[in-house]
Amino acid sequence: MQAYSGRAVTMIPSLFRVSLSPLSKRFPKFQRSLLSQQPKSKLRKSKFAGPVSWAGLGVASVVGAGIYAYYTHQREEKLTRTVQTSTTIGKALLGGPYSLVDSTGVPVTDATFLGEWVILYFGFSYCPDICPNELVKLGKALDRLDATKGVGPVITPVFISVDPKRDSVQQLSRYKKDFHPRMRFLTGTPQQVKKAARAYRVYFSDTNQGKDEEDDDDWDYLVDHSIVMYFLSPEGEFLEFFTQIAEVDEIVERIADHVK
CATH for 94-259? Predict the structure, then answer.
């Protein structure tokens, strides 16, 4: 509407010049007086008229956020249905052998954790928000489980990096200081990490292909990956999974039912 009114206002002087040209020769003061009656505010406003406004940008932002939230929710539900389907027919086809190293450089395999309850998460240390949030949530759940009668500190949390390019042993040794003290942080070569991720059907993709390593900014460096925690029995068998929408209470309750 602003753009339309702007065009109308700017056209008025030219119309008056044509229709009043005979009068203007004889009554120049009359033309100047008539044109000067046009509202100055409208003339100034038309200078900045355009198709984009702050209100329009606000609406677009809200719509975009809604679409992203819907997409994330749908992806979580799809993943949930996929895993639930695989668990209803005998033993779930999740898990398998892998060989990595921990944040001290010690070799670790899937056999290392036999005899322990394990909760496993795949992520990367340069993740700006989701991974830290999930690890903090996991830490809260572990504290609750440690204090739960019949459970105690028997669960080993394990983080497997999907970013072998940057998540070196040294990087993970620094990163682990911000999270639960029992958490083990693992990394490896690209082939080793890919094998571990494939065993648990974890999707990951480096979105930084083509960038110069020197130009990689910590907050502009992303690895797209599945956001799932896997709960494993002391025999290494898959028991439960928790997506990003799982709350601490749900995690504690479902794990406690297995351990007690």
Answer: 3.40.30.10
Q: Are 258 and 240 in contact (CB under 8 A)?
A: yes
Any idea where the domains of the chain sit in the sequence?
2-51, 55-90, 94-259
Tell me the whole-structure pTM to 2 decimals: 0.64
What tokens were used for 42? 């409208």
At residue 55, does pLDDT exceed 60? yes
Sheet holding 228-232, edge to edge: 107-109, 99-102, 184-187, 155-161, 117-123, 228-232, 238-243
Cα–Cα distance, 221 to 137 (Å, whole number) = 23
Phi/psi zone of residue 77: left (φ > 0), alpha (ψ -120 to 50 degrees), beta? Answer: alpha
Beta pairing class for 228-232 and 117-123: antiparallel
Residue 227: which of 141, 135, 106 has the closest Cα?
Answer: 135
Q: What is the pLDDT of residues 184-237, one digit of tens each?
A: 999 999 999 999 999 999 987 776 655 555 555 555 667 878 899 999 999 999
* Predicted local distance difference test score (pLDDT) of residue 178: 96
